Amino acid sequence: MFPTPSLIHFTRNDYNQIYEPDADSFLLLDALELKFNKILEQKPFIILEFGSGSGIATTFVAKHFCQSPCLFFAIDMNPYACYSTRRTFQHNNVDQKHCLNIVQCNLADPIIDRLSSKVDLLLFNPPYVPTETSDVKEVIDRTYAGGEQGNEVIQRSIEQAGRLLSPNGLFYMVALEENDFDTISEFGNQNGLSAEIVLKRRTLIERLFVVEFQRK
Predict the structure, then answer these.
(1) pTM
(2) Could you say which residues of the chain have pLDDT below 50?
(3) d(CA 186, CA 145)
(4) Which one of 19, 32, 68, 146 is at 20 to 30 Å from 173 when CA atoms are compared?
């Protein structure tokens, strides 16, 4: 079992401004570990994470999945999350080996043309909770509010994945039972991607799963 990146540099004040890693975060890490051999076979060089938050997933990959220097893109709309991702990357001593690009934006909007068909590994723990868009008032709310059926951001991320993934690229995304795997799979199909559930977990209040997408 791979060690989780250290987050001891964060305080409660930090978690008032960014998403605190929870069961969904750790499910994503476990799914990546489960697919360790498959990911390593692809020899990923360009790794991108939508909504990097604390930086736990990006740093986890940098620590355990990259045998040679890699190029990372960590994307978040929240400027404090961008700052926090860099802190975690540096705190875990992976910044000397790998190049981390922090981009404050909405998904990959400003860099999607530059990275078209070049991303070898894509990660996302999206806002998946079914929510009325009008109810989203604060930046921190965007870490969970997924719009109708929780799929608004999920659908956009899959559309972008269809453009971003390299020929053998892999996309791992967390989802909620209410998001409906068949709906998610159809989003993938519309964008030339096959979808498969690789890991499921039930918490006290949620049924979560991780989906693996790859080109057909």
Answers:
(1) 0.93
(2) 134, 136, 139-141, 144, 146
(3) 21
(4) 68
**Looking up tokens 């993934």, which residue turns up?**
165
Structural contact between residues 56 and 131, judged by C-beta atoms closer than 8 angstroms: no
Neighbours of 64 (CB within 10 A): 18
The widest CA-to-CA distance across the chain, in whole angstroms, is 45
Spatial contact of 117 and 38, defined as CB atoms under 8 Å apart: no
What whole-number distance in Å separates Cα of residue 111 and Cα of residue 82? 16
The secondary structure of residue 129, as a DSSP letter, is B
Q: What 3-state DSSP class applies to 118?
A: coil
Give the DSSP H/E element, type plus range, for residue 78.
Answer: none
User: For residue 143, what pLDDT is reported?
Assistant: 54
Q: Give yes or no for a contact between 90 and 151, defined as CB atoms under 8 angstroms apart.
A: no
Predicted pLDDT of residue 205: 87
pLDDT at position 128 is 72
Q: Is residue 161 within 8 Å of 48, Cβ to Cβ?
A: no
Closest residue by Cα to residue 18 from 170, 178, 141: 141
Q: In this structure, how many other beta carbons lie within 10 angstroms of the beta carbon of residue 66?
A: 21
- Separation of alpha carbons 107 and 105, rounded Å: 6
The predicted pLDDT at position 1 comes to 87
